Batch of 2 targets.
Target 1
Amino acid sequence: MKNFQIQTEIFFGQGALDRLKNIPHRQVLLIADPFTVTSGLLNLVTAPLTAGGITYTLYSDIVPDPPIDNVIGGVKAALAVKAPCMIAVGGGSAIDTAKAIRKFATQLEEGYRPQLIAIPTTSGTGSEVTAFSVITDPTENRKYPLASEDMIPDEAILDEELVKSVPAAITADTGMDVLTHAIEAYVSTQNNEFSGAFAEKAVEICGQFLIRSYNDNTDSHARRKMHIAACLAGLAFNSASLGLNHGMAHQLGANFHIPHGRANSILLPYIIEYNSGISLFSRSKTNYPPCVRRYCNMARILGLNNLNETTTVRGLISYLQFLAKEMNVPLSVSEAVHITREEYESRIDAMADAALADACTATNPRIPQKEDIIHIYKSIF
Ligand SMILES: NC(=O)c1ccc[n+]([C@@H]2O[C@H](COP(=O)([O-])OP(=O)(O)OC[C@H]3O[C@@H](n4cnc5c(N)ncnc54)[C@H](O)[C@@H]3O)[C@@H](O)[C@H]2O)c1
Ligand SMILES: [Fe+2]
């Protein structure tokens, strides 16, 4: 038996932040990316709160790839004020931090269960609707995707005004994260008709609006569409989970701080080749693994219908590489970080173990062996 549930109430479109005037709380803990504080972006959130007569306390000790220490700091702040509502404002890092803060604060203080409202300021992770929170252990160079239903935010607010300040490079990285979520969820061993519908729509929107968003960050229509696509892809993988792409990307983030979406983008062509068994010089076959038909569906949604399965999957891979190139997203690790091949390869064995153990890898359509993962890590340098 399968089930599909959307636990988060989603407010979206122009003026969505006005929802904050009407939340049923008098006091909130704001957990915000420091950029939103220094840039003044947070005023778009605090203005409707103030208009609604709601007071707030701010916790903004958030960093990308959030380490456990920042979660502990937030738990202390949360238990000091015990606000009935937490509002997370920022990219995936801020929202993931807030989800973990609520989880641990609730466990430590019996009877305390604040509401969580997630307000993304990047169009990428979909964390505003998922049960995942990715926390980093810097001492071990590991990223841990924690997953539990009680981390899913109660409400999400998608307002494109908050993403207009996102610079082109972050638009590109986070947009590639959206595409990776949708494609991985679509071929996951847990894919289903509901997750598939969300993934297809997310990919359709990316095909039309990602480059437009990248080229002009004031393009409200494109920004709104990509903000919604990120959330749709989040709903898809919250149901179907992800795959080896994320399992391997987490290790590139933990070891080299390659931004999450960029790490996914570098891996994606190689993972599609690996899962489909279709390489640059493959001939057509009589039998393909089931994920090939699904990759072909995605290709068709992007307008890439081609002669047969082999050429259509190649078309999808070329399109993804073109998209990355068009948006100046590096195609290899050596383009993304200054590191020698020796330094990089000295980490591969540990990264491969971590990728095999990563919770996302379990739903990959092809069961990877450690040697396969090592081979892919070597190939992407
Ligand atoms: N929980 C999930 O389901 C899930 C899914 C995928 C990824 N993740 C995790 O999320 C994190 C990545 O999140 P992300 O890609 O949103 O990036 P991020 O939150 O790390 O932010 C990246 C950078 O963008 C800046 N930024 C954020 N909003 C901005 C804005 N409006 N204008 C200008 N700059 C802005 C931030 O200050 C930061 O410097 C990773 O840790 C990743 O592992 C979580
Ligand atoms: Fe992701």
Target 2
Amino acid sequence: MRALDAEQLVRDAEACVRCGLCLSVCPTYRDTQLEIQSPRGRVTLYADYAQGRVEDPLRVLEAAYDCLDCRACQTVCPNDVKPGEAALDARVTLQEGRPPSRLVRAALALFHYPFLIDLANVFLVLYQRLGLQALLRRTRLLERVGLGGLQFAESLLPGRPVRLALRLTHPRRLEPKTERPKGTVAFFLGCVMNLVFSESSSAAIEVIRRSGWAVRIPRETTCCGAPHIEEGDWYGFERLAKKNLDFYGRLEVDYILTDCAACGAELKGYVKHFADDPVYGPLARRVAEKTLMFSEFVDREGLPGSARFPFATTHQHACHACHAQGVKDEPERVLSFATDYRPLEGNTDCCGSAGVYNLTHTDESMRILERKMASVARTGAEVLTVENPGCLLQLDLGTRRYGPEVKVRHIAEVVLEAMENQGEPPR
Ligand code: SF4
Ligand code: SF4
């Protein structure tokens, strides 16, 4: 089992030269100005714990859960200190001290069974179509009966209509839409993408086909395990990761493509977890080599010269894309090519979604979100794109709560519309 590596933590703490470069990018330090809420403060605490100098493990666990695991600190640290990854190790190691709530445990169990995700999607579609969502929002009924937390969770659901899950509407294989096929791409169905944003995944698949690739949509896909490791559930993560590696590590395709940054980070990151495993190590390396984010794929393939999206755009990077995978320039190049792209100040700063951080640390998360939406407003963009379902949910709430009135869209939808608009003059 992955656990707090005492030697590594002490090495991290020693490598930290307290230069403070990470302070300005850490959302919790910016919010509180407290050393214990900073990357270097956390690293010191974890190392102290590993050396037996902290008596109360719950203090360490609390610090680990206060961290958003956004890894912005890791991107800027000159000495390769990894406070974000250490936070996950701490959660896994100390989980028994604070087992997840019943609701979180039920949600984690749901992710082990893709058919339950599809069932939940059908309920969600009915919930919206029957007008229950509109009714609950108008009356704020949940809040009135003392379920304010649930009312907030409900407000995170998208306002626009949710479509049926792709597993229910798409076949296992779709042929390319060009005369000369280039090869085959396996499309990794992300749980939350499939549950709430299947329209965006459908757009991504259409872009891949129009780019000359056949698309396989394997039913063998299971959750990438990101929610489990975020909540310290190593065994749940390991079970899911091995299932995916058993299937994708042996699959004969050119690419494994995902439109979810969290899934991309895990598919590429299995290598780290299974490095010493004689069976899963090689499978993990093969999966990592083939995995691409949607924006990486489009950047490599290029868009037709006349592809044009007629609205001004700006882009918020998902932490799991820019900090965990180093995917940052790709979406910006794609958007700069096909749209009137307005760079967003602080676009690599977390939006405050961070797994279930917005549910467990709602006030802090909303402060981060409010600042983010103020930056979005300054761009003057009409469409805000992202490449991760958690950020889509959070930013959609942000527009409703704080403005501005931008449309929040997955980048795949914008790329598809740009391809469809070929030949039409820009506005
Ligand atoms: S940037 Fe790295 S070395 Fe500098 S204070 Fe932060 S963790 Fe320490
Ligand atoms: S991962 Fe994010 S929240 Fe955690 S210490 Fe680093 S910058 Fe701060």
